[in-house]
Amino acid sequence: MNKKKVIITGVTGQTGSYMAEFLLKHTDVEVYGAARRTSSSSFPNLDGFISNPRFHLVSMDLGDSQSVDNLVAEIKPDYFINLAAQSFVGISWDMPEYTFEIDAVGVIRCLESIRKHVPDCRFYNAGSSEEFGDVQFTPQNENHPYRARSPYGAAKIAARQIVKVYRDSYHLYAVQGLLFNHESERRGPEFVTRKITMGVARIKNAIDKGQSFEPIVLGNLDSMRDWSHAQDFVLGIWLMLNQDETTFWNVRESKNPVEQKRRLAFNLKEYILASGECHSIREFVELAFKEAGIAIKNVNPDKLPPSFNPKGVQVNYTTEEGAPLVVSSKEFYRPAEVDWLQGDALMARTLLAWNPLIPFPELVRRMVVNDLRLLEKS
């Protein structure tokens, strides 16, 4: 019997690499990790499994319909997990057209290829809590309206609607989960959490050597986010792709395969994955320095509008001796802020029996320890 095949886009990134790792460890599927062709041949997030005979690194670009179509037609996957995106919210204001091209139009390219070549393929697209944006109630559940405050969030809403159109029109198994912030040791350095832990490791190294250092430059420290470890989310994604094995047994009551497919598509749910806890960037900063053993002094504890100096920065944390450790800069304040995102994953916990296992302090600890280790090796 031929093994089932899974395409994972964005496989060289954080969530994509954890997804591939999970499937290679816990299933017998053939994993095709799709990435854009680049001049680099180094993919550190793949080091743990790139030599696995069931893993195949292939080339694909969501910005090119022929690239997507050729890959789907050749592999004829049973599952297509789209985790590739322009996923940096801040950049989406600078590159709104590109963000929509990849995060929304790219999804159409995937769905069209599936519709034409493998209509029984199960499709998952990565959604985001940024779709909620200007929140109306907390915590946010699956009934919260979509009120994006960034081009990134708006692109994800557009993708969600097109996923629904293809599900309703062609009875495709197509879902877009709602994943709240997920971080890890594999997070890119442009994201705030990794920027913090890499900065803390850099400062720790300088202090140990008696050297001077530059502070970590951030934006709004009082933004509240629901953070989980990315490793916890890959199981939730896989469960969303296999809902008939968990929640919709009644689909099989019909003996007609076409009717089964129609019923399944009609009953598919799109789940929130979240820890249910909310922490500020300020809390993340304080935990990270504590993990590195660096005593810090909060010189701006009140949640007031920042008092930027002529250079456009405000000092927030210093060493006990007064050396700046963390500053806020006008440069990193967004045109429209999303102040509080907190997810209610009750539906996923109840119907999918999914639960996150890695708590917030452990997430921060792992990231700091990893970046300290990387700096020691360099």
Describe the structure.
With 378 residues, the chain is α/β, with parallel strands linked by helices. It has 2 domains: 5-184 and 228-276 and 341-357, Rossmann fold (3-Layer(aba) Sandwich); 192-223 and 280-339 and 373-377, UDP-galactose 4-epimerase, domain 1 (Alpha-Beta Complex), CATH 3.90.25. It is built from 11 helices and 15 strands. A 7-stranded parallel sheet has the order 3-2-1-4-5-6-11, with helices on both faces. The N and C termini lie far apart (47 Å).
SSE map:
Layout lengths: L4 E5 L4 H13 L3 E6 L19 E5 L5 H11 L3 E4 L8 H4 L1 H22 L4 E7 L22 H20 L2 E7 L2 E2 L8 H17 L7 E3 L5 E2 L2 E2 H11 L16 H11 L4 E2 L5 E2 H11 L5 E2 L14 E6 L5 E6 L16 H6 L8 H18 L1
CATH superfamily of the largest domain: NAD(P)-binding Rossmann-like Domain
The second-level CATH architecture of the largest domain is 3-Layer(aba) Sandwich
| CATH level 3 topology of the largest domain | Rossmann fold
Work out the oligomeric state of the chains in this entry: single chain
The largest sheet is: 7 strands, parallel
Strand content: 15-25%
Secondary-structure element order, as H and E? EHEEHEHHEHEEHEEEHHEEHEEEHH
Rounded mean pLDDT score: 92
In helices, the fraction of residues equals 25-40%
The whole-angstrom Rg is 22 Å
The unreliable regions are: none
Number of domains: 2
Q: How are strands sequenced across the largest beta sheet?
A: 3-2-1-4-5-6-11
CATH C-level of the largest domain: Alpha Beta
State the distance separating the first and last CA atoms. Answer: 47 Å
What is the tally of helical segments? 11
Number of strands: 15
